[in-house]
Amino acid sequence: MHNIEEILVELQRFSWPDYVAFVAMFLLCICIGIYFGFMNKSVSEADYMLGGRQMLVIPIAFSLVASFISGITLLGLPTEVYSYGVQYLYVAFGVVGMGIVMGVFYLPVFHDLNITSTYEYLEVRFDRRLRLYGSIMFAVMNVAYLPIVIYVPALAFNQVTGIGVHTITPIVCIICVFYTSLGGLKAVVWTDVVQAVSMLGALCLVAIKGSIDIGGVSVVLERAWNTDRLEAPDLSIDPTVRHTFWCLFFGGIVYWTQTNAVSQNMIQRYLALPTLADARKALIIFCVGVLILMALCGYNGLLIYATYQNCDPLTTKLAKARDQLLPLFVMDTLGELPGMTGLFIAGVFSAALSSLSTCLNSMSAVVLEDFVKPYVKQPLSSSSINWIMRLVVVGVGALCVCLVYVVEHMGTVLQLTMSLEAITNGPLFGIFTIGLFLPWINGNSALLGGIMGVIAMSWVSLNAQWAIASGAISYNTKPLNIEQCDYRFNLTATSAANSSLHLAGSATEDIFPLYRISYMWYTTFGASITIIVALLGSLAFGRNNPNKVDPVLLTPCIRRFFSFGSDKPLDAYKPDIPLQHKLRNDEVAL
């Protein structure tokens, strides 16, 4: 009987066809960057940031899917379903709800304003302080998120090849920085198309080959049913339950709307389309694409359980980290087929590259529009804009490589990043919602709400993540066993881990209730605090006259309730954007 180390060495069969498949994907991305960087000699700011606002619907939709589904999702969702069952997949209803809410209430405003950075909206609707607040929140979240995006797939690569994490991450970052800085949004979008197809192919490959090996889909579903991994929605109204239908639906709508409708990373894609109708088409295709990828990830999670039902690799530590469960399964299932493991790892890195390039491109837009342009006395020259945009991409990419070392040596940073996301997302979404729906709220009240929202979410989220990291809060998994393993492992360490997990679970009730609320409520909680505090703040700071707020800054359903002090038709109003000269200068060639 082999031990774990021998099994791992035996599984690491990354042959030259795998390397060929893996490298081919990177070369294709580089070629796309070179094409858009050198073939289009005269590139305007609008071309670099927004593809000239003339992009096509299908590539943008694919880019949205690829950008949203990071390597963390690709590797984490199968493990979620493997451990806890399909309950999380009911967030699909939240995704559909997000599509409706965003398409009706949020997208029309941002698309019609003809802006580059969504945080420009905050200055027009409130004042410059709110714009700076939004931009800082965005920058903090991105800088914390980027190293995780690239570190998780590097772990997968390390699992299948044995090559060190710090060997592959600089290479990947350099390639991504190269094609993003060179080709701008057009290069990012078209590489995203390649990467979305690669992701979909990788997941289908694993699902088909794994199902054939185990005896078909019916075997997978039967084993999942027997262990309650296939289950109806949990209709409990207890907010501390990790996943219920209500937190997945309502919390999912708010979380996904914030991510898709307010975050610069995603909204920049919609703004690159010429009309609102095109943007809504892209939104529909995005929702369908995400649901398909989530379903594939979920099925692969059930497939992994059906394969390892009698010997859980997480318990035996054959998979040292939760995010290495799917790569382990891939090595076990596809390792004997030349090139197949390479295609899968290329798909995982495709997810990481698309998210990384999206963040880099968005950061260049936000830094230029929100941190540079408002504070220079003279309009920037085309060459200055050119250098600033590209230097931001290079600088943030270099910072990403450095922070990977921090992520590696601080295990709780993964959870800390989740906390940072919750801290910034909720209050930001609350401020944008105030701007769109509550015209009588002024900048002072909105800023107070945003600050209090960040403080409240920092308190709740960081304490909750600390409790989870220390083991004080734990969640019971579906049945897992190690009764029929055909290799040796450290049974003592496994028993100790299970014992500590049991003790931690019994202590969960002693934790302050607010720390135990489901993470799916975090964004809703942060946004609610921001809106409530802003409403109360209006009692102290006074109110705007809603009729003096430009109607194009409000969501369409709110406009009809205010006269705006004029009989002019709605189309006659134009937003009084302080940076209007920027919009006119977008066509200046760099």
TrEMBL record:
One of its GO terms (biological process) is sodium ion transport. GO terms for molecular function: symporter activity. PROSITE patterns: NA_SOLUT_SYMP_3. It is found in: Cell membrane. Keywords: Cell membrane, Ion transport, Membrane, Sodium, Sodium transport, Transmembrane, Transmembrane helix, Transport. Gene3D superfamilies: Sodium/glucose cotransporter. It comes from the Eukaryota. InterPro entries: Na/Glc_symporter_sf, Na/solute_symporter, Sodium:Solute_Symporter_SSF. It holds the Pfam family SSF. GO terms for cellular component: plasma membrane. It is a multi-pass membrane protein. The chain crosses the membrane at residues 19-36, 56-76, 88-109, 130-154, 160-180, 243-262, 283-308, 343-368, 388-407, 422-440, 447-468, 519-541. Belongs to the sodium:solute symporter (SSF) (TC 2.A.21) family. This is Sodium-coupled monocarboxylate transporter 1. It comes from Drosophila madeirensis.
